[in-house]
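hiii, so i know i said id send this last week but things got crazy w the move. better late than never?? heres the sequnce for the chain we talked about at the cafe, plus the structure i predicted for it. fair warning i was half asleep when i ran it
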Amino acid sequence: MVDSISFSFQDAFASERRKAKMLNFSIAYGKTPVGLSKDWKVTVTEARRTVDLWYNDRKEVLKWQKERKKEACESQRVHTLLGRARRFPKIDLANNYHKGHIERAAINTPVQGSAADVAMCAMLEISNNMKLKELGWKLLLQVHDEVILEGPTESAEVAKAIVVECMTKPFNGENFLRVGLSVDANCAQNWYAAK
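okay and structure toks below
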């Protein structure tokens, strides 16, 4: 008799993956070693060492974050990719607690706001696409970076290809970013099945 053993790195290192994901998002949005130590239940020294190691490998991130904080302080606003501004009119009057909140918002806004810019442009491309309309497809919903459309089953694969094209080239059929936009697309009877 032979027994089989199934091993998944994803399962075996689930805790480490969760910590890495938490670390990346936390630092990207300005979490301090004190906050990280509470989340991970480690000493502040251990958390600070982890944060320092993270930044040592990503010096450009630290530089960019400092630039956004400076921009928020000097011009009292930061901008998204498409130029939408988030204003901080009272930053010069803020106490340390509120200044920390504003600095985190100054880091978060260009990232999250620019992602929203891309999603919004992709949705406009999808909604204005004549071929999708001719095929009977309608944009129903957006959830973060996902869009959900509804249409006839017989044209689903054709519609999927058009949607992928719209999402990878969301700026009037172009992508002016220095990075590609990858898209995972599925056809299913409902959102749950598409996941």
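btw The chain has two domains: 9-113, 119-194. thought thatd interest u
miss u guys!!
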